[in-house]
Amino acid sequence: MEDKETGEPSLIDRLNKAFGPLVGPIILDVVDLATFGPLGIGGFFIGAIVGWWMLSVYGLSMNTRLVLSLLAGIYCMIPLTEFVPAATLISAIARYMQGSNNK
Q1: Least CB-packed of 11, 43, 67, 95 within 10 Å?
Q2: What pLDDT does residue 67 have?
Q3: Is 72 in contact with 51 (CB distance < 8 Å)?
Q4: What's the per-residue H, E or C state across 25-65?
Q5: What is the dihedral of CA 25, 70, 51, 49, to 10 degrees?
Q6: 82 half-sphere exposure, CB direction, 13 A CA radius
Q7: Torsions phi, psi of 65, nearest 5?
Q8: d(CA 70, CA 10)
Q9: Whole-structure pTM value
């Protein structure tokens, strides 16, 4: 939605554009943190399910969702990744690089 007087995007639109793409990866990093320790195999299944849901929200194709959700499961299963927000960092960097290609 745009502001009718100025034609500028609304605050909600601006916040969604800035933070919307990072919500899914933040959720995945929280799942990774919650499944550390003896839940390694469980972390794979939980991470894959969360990845599938997250990627379906983004409207990606079935094959892309399958591959990326498997990677999300592997990420949540790997030990010592709990305290590194890798999914969020990768998404933020990808979003930043995407902006530089729009010139």
Answers
A1: 11
A2: 92
A3: yes
A4: HHHHHHHHHHCCCCCHHHHHHHHHHHHHHHHHHCCCCHHHH
A5: -140
A6: 11
A7: -60, -40
A8: 36
A9: 0.70
pLDDT, tens only, 42-89: 888 888 998 888 888 777 789 988 998 999 998 888 888 888 888 888
One-letter amino acid for residue 75 of the chain = Y
Q: Which amino acid is at 67?
A: V
Q: How far apart are CA 20 and CA 6, in angstroms?
A: 24
Residue 25: name the closest of 62, 58, 61, 63 by CA.
Answer: 58
Residue length of the chain: 103
Tokens 């990866």 correspond to 25
